[in-house]
Amino acid sequence: MRRADGLLMLVRAIQCFHPNSGRETLMLRRFFITLGLGIAILHGGSLQAQDTGKKIPRLLVITESKGFVHSVVKRPAPDKFCLVEEALTRLGKETGDFEAVCSQDSRKEITAENLAKYDAVFFYTTGDLPWSETQKADLLSFVRSGKGFTGSHCATDTFYGWTPYGDMIGGYFDGHPWHTKVKVMVEDTTNPATRHLGTSFEITDELYQFRTPYSRDKLRVLMRIDPSWAKERRLDEQRQIDKRKADMLAKAAKLRDDGKTAEADKLTQEADRSRPGIHRADDDHALAWVRDYGKGRVFYTALGHRDEVWKDPRFLGHMRGGLQYAMGTAQGDAAPRPAPGK
Questions:
Q1: DSSP assignment, residue 24?
Q2: Both 157 and 8 in a single domain?
Q3: To which H or E segment does residue 5 belong?
Q4: Is residue 118 assigned to a domain?
Q5: By C-alpha distance, which of 311, 151, 285, 174 is closest to 222?
Q6: pLDDT by residue (tens digit) across 46-78?
Q7: Domain harbouring 151, CATH code
Q8: Do 153 and 305 meet the contact criterion of CB atoms below 8 Å apart?
Q9: Domain range for 20
Q10: What is the C-alpha to C-alpha distance for residues 107 and 134, in angstroms, rounded to an integer?
Q11: pTM, whole model, 2 decimals?
Q12: CA-to-CA distance for 34 and 148, rounded, in angstroms?
């Protein structure tokens, strides 16, 4: 007999039961009613799962570092999760959105056979991971086939020598000129990764800039650094560089007048090497984007350096929505578009 049928019979028995007389009989009826309700509550979730047959998506979480090792992916012990793994595992369990499987051994996990068990992959990685050419092809095929790829922060600081990876994720890390509180402008307020954030918000984190193949022609930017804030800091940096360079050249000229030619030449060369740390002249610094990749979906966010960011409900909501988009459980527009006002 099915569990649902058993519960139905119990409820009907309770409905048909009537006390004949006495306080004890009334108490017994109340006991049966309470028992029936308790059983129904305890088994409600199981019945729902049986009736709907809902499949919980699976997320493969890779937090492997072959370059700089961020504090958020340092495991306190080999058998204990790092902060990123803890946060994503808890997020999946508490929301019921997905089941996270965590690993710091991508060479073992990234195979066509193993990837078939998952709906999306998440990267918090650095450097060149030790993969074969077959494994690289397996990951790209996995995403193109209709699955998801997601990454946070240093996922763009990975596989510089493998350009198809850069094409898939949407860009490569090109330095972090700022580590401060910043105003973030939300460009797409309808995407599941950003619709809870309003039109702008402030957050403190390490802030990336990106280089080729990053292009708005290929991506849909979800949010960016406030361009007026970025412009002010770019111009201020350039003023400081110009002043320092002028001071160095003036000192070099004096050294040359004093006959110290070698020292003057060295200082002049040093002045000529002065370059700004902020590379974009258009002040367009994306912080999150989505894109189509074959039949699959890609979500990337540049946030996630600091420990407290991984505990911030806004960021966790950002991650949740991005993962939903990548796994295909929530919809969002991935059509590229220019920066606002362009």
A1: H
A2: no
A3: helix 3-16
A4: yes
A5: 285
A6: 333 333 467 899 999 999 999 999 999 999 999
A7: 3.40.50.880
A8: yes
A9: 3-52
A10: 11
A11: 0.83
A12: 46
